[in-house]
């Protein structure tokens, strides 16, 4: 195929200085033998999404490499110096188990130090939530973690945190991008200043573990923790550095680690995907749980910010909770514990969620008379709520994609404290003759049965990105008026910041930041959300529907009814 002129112009810049000989040779090889791959590597610059910047490792402007990360770090260095004049700027850097993470973390540290910035660099891989914690613990101005979360092995990424411990949010992300875009690769200062790089580890580990216990441990019956049998897998990731230690310190002694998955490994050799959202990822752990008759299974993703939880149902079968179910159980438990301890003060406290997560969280907030703040997808928005509303105390919050945050010591989803919290719930339930599953069922009786479903359509490369854009344009410009026999009542368009009532044609403003998200609300209370992923080549469709029930015995029929309803919506939207 012929190489487009703009792609050739971009790639030709990479076969000369300031790029090193290895990079130049790799680009030359792509030009001569892989024009399609060359186009994908150079057709755009990697951008910040909901979870930072993620991409395939390799040469090119659309790839993760020392130059794209170096340029970002150079721009961030200049922005930090503009934002904090006359201060000794400090940053913390962590990295996960992925290929090249350690090397790239050192590149990032070198660039910061070359710009006169003090760097605290973790001596070895650490969980992402520990980096968020370290930013505040060390009074840093910013933080970086090198990770691609649960993406395939060929990916890596670069998450940027601000001094509050939360990820970048507007307008800072856009302002930093503007600084980066003004730079040339020749502007990157790669030469390290070793005097400004300090390696950190044990002290932060201890403080992080202590914080998790303070936030997620409650008054339990005697021996409740010792009597809970836990199977845990790190899925070859970083949580092995933190979770066993935290469980032991909290008093959990019957913990069984899936040994085949305990060694950090960027190839993730025992799973198709190191994503606890996928049932297959927890198969080895569930098999071990069945062998040992364990009460609960917990698996965390490579950078330890998401967790998957499996518990036994009423027939003793191990089942995987979805992210919405885990979030509801953990939030309800926190609210009840805070209430029992006399700490709840109405609207002075709040819980957090996202626009694509279960509306059941709103029902919980109403019942406990606390505020519920709902933001865009991504925990950076929950962290922003904590920063923007200092007069309110954050209790906990989550999202459908298996992330949860307990308290405000960490300002990102945190599988370490969340693992401890779900074990507390399981331990107290078992001690009282109940179970996590039964507690979830009781919540459905109290608040209604909620059913959620997610469809992710993968569209890779430049063509895939265009296809996703076209799908969103079609849904936006030619909105559906009726879906599966139910009229569409409201459409929320977060790109135009308008909510439209299709019955009256009246509009009202949406006050969340602009985002490429559309939400349809149907007459029967069902909800459909469409959004391109900010970190993967996917477009995602989220479905939610609910129905009241009066007893646990009605759950099976309610589930069948809502499953059929959601399937009819999917069929009508041609998303099979």
Automatic annotation (TrEMBL):
Keywords: Isomerase, Magnesium, Metal-binding, Phosphoprotein
Coiled-coil portions: none
Cofactor(s) in the UniProt record: Mg(2+)
Listed GO MF terms: magnesium ion binding; phosphopentomutase activity
Domain of life assignment: Bacteria
Pfam families: PGM_PMM_I, PGM_PMM_II, PGM_PMM_III
SUPFAM superfamilies from the UniProt entry: Phosphoglucomutase, C-terminal domain, Phosphoglucomutase, first 3 domains
InterPro entries to which the protein is assigned, alphabetical: A-D-PHexomutase_a/b/a-I, A-D-PHexomutase_a/b/a-I/II/III, A-D-PHexomutase_a/b/a-II, A-D-PHexomutase_a/b/a-III, A-D-PHexomutase_C_sf, A-D-PHexomutase_CS, Alpha-D-phosphohexomutase_SF
Residue ranges of every copy of the Alpha-D-phosphohexomutase alpha/beta/alpha domain listed in the record: 47-184, 218-316, 322-442
PROSITE patterns noted in UniProt: PGM_PMM
GO biological process, one term: purine ribonucleoside salvage
Database matches in Gene3D superfamilies: Alpha-D-Glucose-1,6-Bisphosphate, subunit A, domain 3, Alpha-D-phosphohexomutase, C-terminal domain
Family: Belongs to the phosphohexose mutase family.
Descriptive protein name: Phosphomannomutase
Species the sequence originates in: Paenimyroides marinum
Biological classification of the source: Bacteria, Pseudomonadati, Bacteroidota, Flavobacteriia, Flavobacteriales
